[in-house]
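Retro notes - structure team

What went well: the batch runner handled both jobs without manual restarts.
What didn't: labels got mixed up in the shared folder, which is why I'm recording both outputs here explicitly, each with its sequence directly above its tokens.

Job 1
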Amino acid sequence: MRVVLFALNGSFAHTCLALRCLRRPLEAAGFEVLLIEKNLKDRRDEVLQSLYAAKADIYSFSCYIWNIEESVALAEDLAALLPNASILFGGPEVSFDTERFSSRPFIDCVVCGEGEDAVRELCERIKRGEELPRIVRASEPDVMGDEGILYRDGDYRAGEMLYYESSRGCPYRCAYCLSSVGGRLRAKTVAAVLADMEAFEKLSADIKVIKFVDRTFNFDAARANAIWRALLDEKFTKNYHFEICASLLNEESFEILRQFPKGKLQLEIGLQSTNPETLAAVARHVSPERVIEATRRIHEMGNIHVHLDLIAGLPCESYARFGQSFNEAYFCADMLQLGFLKLLHGTALRRDAEKYGYIFMAKAPYTVLATKWISRDELYRLSKIADLLDRFYSSGKFAQSLDFAVRLAPSPFAFYEGLLAHLEASEGRDIRKLSQTNAFRVFYRYVATFTEGGDLATFEEKLHADYAAHEARRMPYSVIGGKKEKK
């Protein structure tokens, strides 16, 4: 009996770990398993044809906020083409809103929770010709198995990001996060993790990044330090990405992190807000001062790429107060990610939406549109500032000139507010639609509105250096003194 495990990924470079978690127990039970991964930019009819051509007996869809609408549409069409096939839905987007999906006649069963055992058992019931329940609530294993890596040669492409899970669950209960409603925290042993890292080295195709999907990798500082110290060995050649709680780092952690060669390690740190009232409202019991101090300390080492997250739309945070969080976070990291609160099914904030006056998107990804503290216009303005951050800061293509210019402004947030106003007045269009040369031109002319003399000359030098570092030609005269480019 053939089983297709299917996921629509967010982009070409991503892979779906969940499919690989499900594959092993199904194969052990004797099923023929085919993985089909597409991304959201693929044409729907081509995705549908790939599913139809597999002629499987069972199709299992892995569902997330970014793919749920497309997954539902594909499943409905697939059921019409293959009426005898069974269709299962699982994943975080359906686990906490089961009735909405179990009521769809073309979905045979919705799996809630961890699916390794549940999906295998459902497939065995289908094989025996038994009737399926509309909803299955999966049991949670007591421990994580040390079964090795889930990727194998042939089911990923060179340059893709591969995901790895060394623990499940989270020690925190943040009100906006699905990990807060998950089960117990379970982790693989240090020895098992290192054996898995050695197994990644043996895969034939080039791996871009191994991203640990653990919600808080360093929940146990001693365990995290042991893994990091081992990864210093030259036999581990990949780039490793970890999501950590910076306030849990100890002196041994810093001593180890300082030794990594540049480019081998990436750390993602969730600050979210520096407002104590906001953090208390979302049950995030960490010290923002300690997070910022630790993040800055890592950033200043210069060998580790640091990604820092803020969330707009959290309770008790106005536009002005968010600007303060922005200012306090700005100079601490290589990449500052300005995200927007999403009211996910199953989370405490979703249940308390009325209490906080939340207005949010009716369909996935359920992004907050307005709150009691921040208006729709203000959140939209922040979304445009987020675009500027992506283009100028996080791209790294304006590194020298941007750092210099921001320090001349009253504050980082004021700098980006001014840049946005200048862009809207001079261009009247989205920064994402500007050519790179025109982006340099807009940037220069904005900075020239509040800078002169020696500072402006220094800024021009740094701007030339940034352009030369990333473009194949010298910076055109039009950037500083002439006409804008046509494109």
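Job 2
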Amino acid sequence: AGMLQLGGHAVYLGPHDIQMGSREIPADVARNLERWVDGIAARTFAHGTVEALAEHARIPVLNALSDREHPCQALAALLTIQERFGRLKGIRLAWVGDGNNVLRSLVYGGTALGMAVAVATPKDYGLDAETIRQGRSLAAGAGGALELSDDPAAAVRDADVVYTDVWTSMGQEATAAARRRAFTRYQVNAALLAHAPAHAVVTHCLPAHRGEEITDEILDGPRSVALDEAENRLHTQKALLAEVL
């Protein structure tokens, strides 16, 4: 939709069209596609595949989602926060849930823009050391902060934004039952939000597992800006395309 609105054309190539990694290596895919198109938006799951495409293509390669990062989603979240509060610097964002790809990108984007990012995850499901190092380095340079704990109530205290995502991401289905047990205290519900300021908003990258990481009452309630964020995925990705193409 974004390319069409910008006056361009988009070609969708699914896993059965390319069979990247089994039939054709990423380097060959990149070298072929650069002869036909002006840019590549890669949603490949494996982060190494995105990096390989970017290394070998002479055209822009956008990470539309990988198992490590989801920068396009973070851009949509940041625009949504900017629209609601009129600023990003000094905003406190609380993450409640899994230390996943969306969180990594929010840590990078939020701390680089002077936000305080408070993360609450179970001890075995937190951020990796490299993301923590980069996040704290970015925060130090921009006046932001990165705080880590396993206490959801402490994370949402003084928060302007409460963010959650699914407990089980793509490729983790075999551990879903164990994750549900580990994340029981991390549901975003009315009881948790009682610890947050009255002005705090709630968002989710969607789609949600309703009744797991967030309740219907909160996701559909007046504090939710999840659908605003969903809309802003279109606007931010159009802006990104206009910038790089």
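One thing worth noting from job 2: Residues 71-231 form a domain with the Rossmann fold fold (CATH 3.40.50.1370).
We'll revisit the folder naming next retro.
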